[in-house]
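pasting for the record
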Amino acid sequence: MLHPAKKILLLAALAFLFASCARERFLEAPEEDKKEERPLWWVLQHKETASKELSYEDRWYRYEAEFDYIQPGMDIYMNPLMSLCPIEKATYKVTDKETGEVVRAQTLFQIPCDTCHKR
């Protein structure tokens, strides 16, 4: 059992702690929505497995990508976890929704791993 003086001191310390945290939140400026392009790795999280196209939109941008998969052959094997071949090439385009201007257009190549996807 705590002594009544210790209880009061503990309650006062907790009240001071909560008040200081609340004050910081109260004085913080609200976060502004920034017009910022999402990175490619973040957009790829919205890709369906084995799909050849990706189309995603956020508040400011439209993200589009087309994927070319490596075709299985004599020395090229499918991924045992997903039973599909890796992506060989992706054409990626980011368009500003307000202006319709293409912000980024690039073609990305992926080098397959040597052990199971030899060419």
